[in-house]
């Protein structure tokens, strides 16, 4: 199956699962839960550390491209190791069919650590935004390639109204322009093209000049070594998002510490 076919399949399945959850838990119930949450932790603020590069460390059991990475991973144990290892924020995959995660993982991680928590999923509907805040998320991911500008802008503004930050993921100059046009403050550059699965490890560095310095820039995918992170730092990248490279290690927290050493 081609990468674009997989992306379309993920989005289709996301919408199917979403309708089932909407029936099981009405929006009014989620809205009450979201209102009862303590104020969101500042995700964007946590990533901006002048003179150093920060890391969003990811709890990720599997992916469509890599298959199972750490099938039996305890999300709380991994998150606590990340916090001890120097993470500035934690990303939790909440998609079950393709990534092996759940919203319950996010709830448990949020209660276990003191870092901002990003809900990483294929967000396509306003219900999911409220659902994220109701589960305790401090930020959500919006993928430009999966959304129209109108929907992206609406979900971004809704998230901000609920107190959450938004990581807007892009892959090329056109997507960056679209992200900036809707007011994105935290912009991710994914080295992996979701439409082809091809990797371009220089992409974030090339795109740095296209993004105002007032925005927070996050390099995503393929970062595995201290040298990778040092190269991103030297190129003016504010933060990196690392999942698979850490989850494959016996101690993800120690691996993160080594990844960020002197960074």
Question: How is this structure best summarized?
Answer:
The chain has 263 residues and is of the alpha/beta class.
Question: Main attributes?
Answer:
TIM Barrel; 44% helix; two-stranded antiparallel ribbon; alpha/beta; globular; 10 strands; eight-stranded parallel beta barrel; 263 residues
Notes on the protein architecture:
α4 packs across α5 and α6 runs parallel beside α7 (149-161). An 8-stranded parallel β-barrel has the order 1-4-5-6-7-8-9-10, surrounded by 6 helices. It has a two-stranded antiparallel ribbon with strand order 2-3. 44% of the residues lie in helices and 17% in strands. The radius of gyration is 17 Å and the shape is globular. It has 12 helices and 10 strands. The protein is α/β, with parallel strands linked by helices. The longest helix is centred in the first third of the chain and has 22 residues, at 3-24. It has a single domain (3-260), classed as TIM Barrel (Alpha-Beta Barrel), CATH 3.20.20.70. 46% of the residues are buried. α5 links the parallel β4 (89-93) and β5.
């Amino acid at each position: 199956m081609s990468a674009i076919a997989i992306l379309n399949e993920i989005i289709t399945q996301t919408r199917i699962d979403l309708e089932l959850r909407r029936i099981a838990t009405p929006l009014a119930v989620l809205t009450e839960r979201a209102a009862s949450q303590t104020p969101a932790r500042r995700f964007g603020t946590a990533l901006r550390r002048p003179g150093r590069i920060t890391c969003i460390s990811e709890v990720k059991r599997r992916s469509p491209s890599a298959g199972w990475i750490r099938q039996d991973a305890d999300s709380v144990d991994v998150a606590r190791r990340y916090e001890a290892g120097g993470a500035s924020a934690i990303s939790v995959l909440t998609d079950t069919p393709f990534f092996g995660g759940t919203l319950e993982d996010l709830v448990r991680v949020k209660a276990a650590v003191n870092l901002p928590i990003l809900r990483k999923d294929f967000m396509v509907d306003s219900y999911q935004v409220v659902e994220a805040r109701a589960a305790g998320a401090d930020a959500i991911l919006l993928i430009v390639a999966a959304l129209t500008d109108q929907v992206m802008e609406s979900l971004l503004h809704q998230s901000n109204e609920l107190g959450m930050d938004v990581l807007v993921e892009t892959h090329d100059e056109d997507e960056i322009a679209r992200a900036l046009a809707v007011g994105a403050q935290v912009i991710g550059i994914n080295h992996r093209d979701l439409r082809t699965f091809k990797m371009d490890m220089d992409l974030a560095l090339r795109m740095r000049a296209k993004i105002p310095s007032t925005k927070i820039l996050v390099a995503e995918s393929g970062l595995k070594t201290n040298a990778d992170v040092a190269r991103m730092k030297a190129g003016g990248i504010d933060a990196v998002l690392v999942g698979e490279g850490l989850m494959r290690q016996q101690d993800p927290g120690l691996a993160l510490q080594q990844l960020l050493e002197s960074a």
